[in-house]
Amino acid sequence: MTANEIRDSFKKFFESKQHAIxxxxxxxxxxxxxxxxxxxxxxxxxxxxxxxxxxxPRRRADTQKCLRVSGKHNDLEEVGHDTYHxxxxxxxxxxxxxxxxxxxxxDMAWEYLVxxxxxxxxxxxxxxxxxxxxxxxxxxxxxxxYWSKHVPEDHxxxxxxHDNFWEMGDTGPCGPCSEIHVDSRTPEQRAASGKSxxxxxxxxxxxxxxxxxxxxMQFNRKADxxxxxxxxxxxxxxxxxxxxxxxxxxxHSNYDxxxxxxxxxxxxxITGLKYTTFEEGEVSKExxxxxxxxxxxxxxLRAVSFSIADGQLPSNAKAGYVIRRIxxxxxxxxxxxxxxxxxxxxxxxxxxxxEMGEAFPELKAQQQLISKVMKEEEDAFLRTLDKGIxxxxxxxxxxxxxxxxxxxxxxxxRLFDTYGFPLDLTELICRENGFTVNEEQFNVEMxxxxxRARNAAAVENSDWTELAQGEQQFVGYDxxxxxxxxLRYRKVTQKKNEFYxxxxxxxxFYGEMGGQVGDCGVICNxxxxxxxxxxxxxxxxxxxxxxxxxxxxxxxFMACVDTDKRDASAANHTATHLLDYALRQVLGExxxxxxxxxxxxxxxxxxxxxxKVTDEEIRQVExxxxxxxxxxxxxxxxxxxxxxxxxxxxxxxxxxxxxxDKVRVVCFGPSCEFCGGIHAKATGKxxxxxxxxESSVAAGIRRIEAKTGRECEEFLYKTEDILKAVRSFFxxxxxxxxxxxxxxEEHDAxxxxxxxxxxxxxxxxxxxxxxxxxxxxxxxxxxxxxxxxPNVAKDLVFKIRERHPENLLCVIGSIFENKPMLNVMLSxxxxxxxxxxxxxLVREAxxxxxxxxxxxxxxxxxxxxxxxxxxAAMDKVIELADL
Length: 883
Hints:
By secondary structure, the protein is α+β, with helices and mostly antiparallel strands. Helix content is 40%, strand content 25%.
């Protein structure tokens, strides 16, 4: 069976068991503050498991794209070095929310593996939780009983808490689990090891691996560590698709299956190098490096491509930084071991799309964007690598001159931190040049950075204090004030600051989601007023953030939204919809939203477009948006519309967003989009729209920043004040533009005159200095200390070299704006025959004026802080030249 056939068979099997087959959620998570990426199949059902969302349908199955590179499941450094670790992977899963439990899950798993896929039952081993006396949890005898219907007792293995008790996090739903392991060793390997499959379960044997984990969620872990029963038993199973395909295709490595082999063959074609499969046996160190690099590139290509397709671009923050880190790891391996000194990964995208585009149509739809973003990122990092290599070469030159053999770890870490230059690449380059790296110092610096990051991000949540049962109702589309009670609250501590999170039974507060900031306001009654400083969306409900709890949390309150901020935010949100529509009309239907930010003060809109938006196009967009604002088009809203029906009326859905069976559609005339945010009741409420900037975010992604209403009014006043001030500089001239143009032309003419004068001065001064030059052992030594701008001093030393191209050492000390500058010029023969290096001379001499610098062997410059040290620095250059 091919990988695609195996994926389809899983879906068809569970569809026959009355499971709803649902699409994969985006790999990038946008509205969950606790997660950046989907790292397990259950992530999209978290709110159902926590009881904040309707569990219907109670049986579901899918194949979920996942990413594990950070936090608890940090597999990144393993990827490529073994047969089965990946960053991006597919998780086949089935779920039951209060329907079947352990027996049903076990029976269905066995039926699929043995009856449908025809795996040999003798190769299958299962684990059950051995129990935990300290937590008063007995062995999972129930699961063991159900497994005994299918496997002999010696194939049922007790597992410890680490392997067989699944937890969502430090708090939250959890429960025992049963893992299914497969012994895929050949008869020869079994005979050679002398061990049964049972003895190798969970022993990191690459051929005896877990393929399916059945989680039986029945507890809730509280902040104090205690367990309580869940109100609804949940089945959550996850089967690694790549591992399953490997079993069925009789391979000993995931990378030898038809999931990865087409990509690896494309790598072979591009690089001219050969990949060897695990079946081909032992290989040389050089071939192993090539194999690892090709596996790294094949894996990371998938992770980066799916992330971009889901709307997450590489960047320097949060999820974007993780994606950039993955991509750069692949570029480094291709650069170091596959000889790829130019962008390479983007050339593999067509192969990936051909193999996975049918199962995941977002890849096909976003192929052009993925390729462009990837190529730009690769090119940028390759330039960074070149800079890092230059810095490393300078460091090795200095070590050689100082007689040192070890690069200190602080420098190595600086290369890593600033240029993304990993330790192993630094070690490789140093080793090739006869140097070592102090790895211990590097690790100390790395640990310091991790501690800083951990301390900055540390958040401590208490348990929720339940005041009343019930689910929250959001009434914010219709009301800005509403009677409410507090359902539950908890204390949160972050960076030594304490605040509280409240969940209300009825709330008009919109929690931050979809790029729109959350509402603020108050909850109040006749006894007190509590300020809501922010509102967040968490597990499908609004969480209200306050600095203090009410004196009586059980009292009734009136929840009141700050309507001034709400209206301004709503106006900006509606403006983004009009902007999106106008961009499609002006630039073309290829325009797709790639991100947005909406606050009361401003709006930001990212979209796909492969060139700069011209000033004329921006003006067209502004005119179209403002025309729709003046038309005062009323909001047309469709709540709980079936997803397919919404698509039929032309509503625009965004790639990378998760939609349910029922959606909300927002229309303003011809603009029609899926949207859950807060909007103006009519476009006229926006007032006016003005674009302030248009820029590039990444390859193929442009960003527009704009303002509306009162903010536009303030901008017009400021612009008017600036124009009045500028006009006053020119005697309130009526034709201000003409007067300024005249001044610019006169300035340009005077600038040319000055340049001619400076050139003549440099020429005359070069002649004068050469006449006064000293001759030391046949070398012409020109020195001078003068007041001049840095660029003029540089022109001077080049003019002197031009007039005297042999046996020359020129040292010019200049002063500009009370700061010293040192310029050193050598003729080529002084570099070649005398072994001098201007860069090394300058670096050492600059210390005397509290400065630093560098340059090329024939020319270098340095700046400093200490004027009094300039003469000494000039003398030091002559001394070091040792003529």
